[in-house]
Target: DUF4197 domain-containing protein
Amino acid sequence: MKKIFALLIVFNLTACAELQEVVNQLPQSGGIGNVDIAAGLRQALDMGIDKQVTKLTQTDGFYKNDLVKILLPEELQKVDEALRKIGLSSLADEGIKALNRAAEDAVKEATPIFVSAVKDITFDDTKAILLGDDNAATTYLISKTQAQLYNKFKPVISNSFGKVGADQIWTNLITKYNSLPLTSDVNPDLTDYVTIEALDGVYTMIAVEEKEIRTKVSSRTTDLLKKVFALQD
Model:
């Protein structure tokens, strides 16, 4: 659902005639051109990584953050419910916590991947993005990097599963569930699921910082951010 919503935003940015009319009237004076605007957008995304994404790497960075906490996928909710019914609530809780611990560890290892993605990104229409929604630059980043970052991030998630013991916890949890009478065996691809959820969490926190910069002048802590984002005020 998040991916569909993000793609719709990008479509709206490029398709909205009214926005394009405003874009065409954006001043070119003061030495602020596409190069400066692109640099300002990258800087905003970099600050999102530096100030917000780093929070995800701390203990409970995902687990106690309602914006990004990883919950169970639909096919595992029946596992959670069944185990709680037979008095294994603590094991079920550990299973959820383990998924979030894996994400926290993986984001710590993968932060340079996101930094590199922002550095390499080329904005096709800097003015439209600058004058877009509060998360327009983040949405653009998603559209240009999500597939590539998924492929780079998944092995990191897989490694983190082992480091934090999530693989063993979930092997034990699913084995217990599959041994219960009148249940259908499950064998979910948790690495794929947590990879997608962790990526969404990273993009969510980058968007938080982008919105701060767009809506609060005090959050524009460099001359470039002040100069560029003044154009959208």
